[in-house]
UniProtKB/TrEMBL annotation:
Pfam family, one: MFS_1
Presence of keyword Transmembrane: yes
Keyword Membrane: yes
Lineage start: Bacteria, Bacillati, Actinomycetota, Actinomycetes, Micrococcales
Domain of life: Bacteria
InterPro entries hit by this protein: MFS, MFS_dom, MFS_trans_sf, Tet-R_TetA/multi-R_MdtG-like, YfmO-like
Keywords recorded for this protein, A-Z: Membrane, Transmembrane, Transmembrane helix
Descriptive protein name: MFS transporter
């Protein structure tokens, strides 16, 4: 009897270059939560204040956001493979430099270079996988989603495990793994890009910011990202756990983000308007942040708030970025570049503001500040609905959903 290939077998039968890029994607996405478990250790070993250590997020996100304005222009001219390799090379160099640093100011600076490399790599990886994968676009997207979920979940766990040795451990580990990914892409990706180059004008993302729909969503996402990164970057301090404990907590957070990004958000947007999903889930996130503030003295209460927050953040990440891609006739790469550059400002400023509020007022104040910011995001979405009619036109195609997940979670 002839063997019938199952869907799983078809997905797993991919060219070597797909596995090379997929592996590098896992490592790149690990960088999102890698430093979370070692923030207290960095503060102690380098005699830094909590605010100084939070600048590790600020420099990374600020440069990532600014670089997003130019990555589509770069990759459309030098090709996907070169863009991937430049991004990976920068991550290797700057993560290694951070591991060898002797003061927190140097680590902050090298995290900025890491952010530049991550922007170049992540913005190009999905198109490369889709272009090279066998079994059609759907198979490629499942692989990309799997890499994304693994990276977001494993990052904090690896950071916690290596952080028990030294705060330098996660940086050395990233450098080694990314170097392996670099070599794999050099050897396996091939000489030609798998996707056709379509030159993008340098001014395109800047002009896109003037579009009312993009502007509305970007403004809402600035306030949303404040809440996101208060929960992610500030919580390790009041939790009071060691590196491995923090790694396990944020491993659970990463799994939560991945599950709702990949499976729950598409179900919701198939049943409800995207703006309705945002208007409902954003206030739920505000309530979760308020609960974190009220239960800040309870370690268990904070852990529950982190996990529930991850579930809500996964939905919002995907729906926000799907909305950006559906809101205008602009090319998706241009719209997402403009949107990402603006929204990352919220993520960049939130961590140091949170620690300063905790010093000036109470340890719970950052969570109340974050909840207020999320409510402002809700107001912006509701007030700007007249600019977002196209957003509610229907469910996104599978390829669009995957691109939204990738760009949304790359924050």
């Amino acid at each position: 009897m002839p063997h019938v290939r199952t869907e799983t077998e078809s997905i797993l039968r991919q060219p070597k270059q797909v596995w090379a890029v997929g592996f590098a994607c896992v490592i790149a996405f690990m960088g999102i939560g890698l430093v979370d478990p070692i923030l207290p250790a960095i503060a102690a070993d380098l005699e830094a204040t909590p605010t100084e250590t939070e600048l590790l997020f600020t420099s990374y996100l600020l440069i990532t956001g600014l670089a997003m304005l130019f990555t589509s222009w770069v990759s459309s001219r030098i090709g996907a493979k070169r863009t991937l390799l430049i991004g990976l090379g920068l991550i290797v160099a700057f993560s290694l430099a951070a591991a060898l640093s002797g003061d927190v100011e140097a680590v902050i600076g090298f995290r900025a270079g890491w952010g530049l490399g991550n922007a170049l790599f992540i913005s190009t990886a999905l198109a490369t996988i889709v272009g090279a994968a066998s079994g059609g676009t759907a198979s490629a997207i499942i692989l990309y989603e799997a890499a994304l979920g693994l990276g977001i979940a494993i990052g904090p766990l690896l950071g916690g495990l290596l952080g028990t040795i030294s705060w330098r451990g996660p940086f050395f580990g990233t450098a080694v793994l990314m170097a392996i990914g670099f070599i794999a892409i050099v050897v396996l990706l091939g000489k030609e890009d798998a996707v056709e180059r379509i030159p993008v004008k340098l001014s395109a993302p800047f002009r896109a910011m003037l579009n009312p729909a993009i502007g509305t969503l970007a403004l809402a996402a600035v306030f949303y990202n404040i809440g996101f990164f208060v929960l992610l970057a500030y919580t390790p301090f009041p939790l009071g756990m060691n590196a491995i404990g923090l790694g396990l907590v944020f491993f659970g957070w990463g799994v939560s983000v991945a599950v709702t990004s990949v499976w729950v958000a598409p179900l919701l947007t198939a049943a409800l308007r995207r703006t309705t999903v945002l208007a409902v889930v954003l206030p739920l996130l505000a309530l979760d942040l308020l609960a974190a503030g009220f239960f800040i003295a309870s370690q268990l209460g904070l852990v529950i708030a982190v996990i529930v927050g991850g579930l809500l953040l996964g939905i919002l990440n995907t729906v926000f970025t799907e909305s950006v891609m559906e809101a205008t006739d602009l090319p998706r790469s241009v719209a997402s570049s403009a949107y990402s550059a603006v929204r990352f400002l919220g993520g960049a400023v939130a961590p140091p503001i949170a620690t300063e509020l905790a010093v000036l007022f109470l340890p719970s104040t950052p969570y109340f500040f974050a909840a207020g910011s999320i409510l402002l995001a809700t107001v912006v979405v509701i007030a700007g609905r007249r600019f977002l009619r196209r957003v509610d036109s229907g469910p996104a195609p599978l390829a669009l959903e995957a691109e939204a997940i990738g760009i949304g979670d790359a924050a």
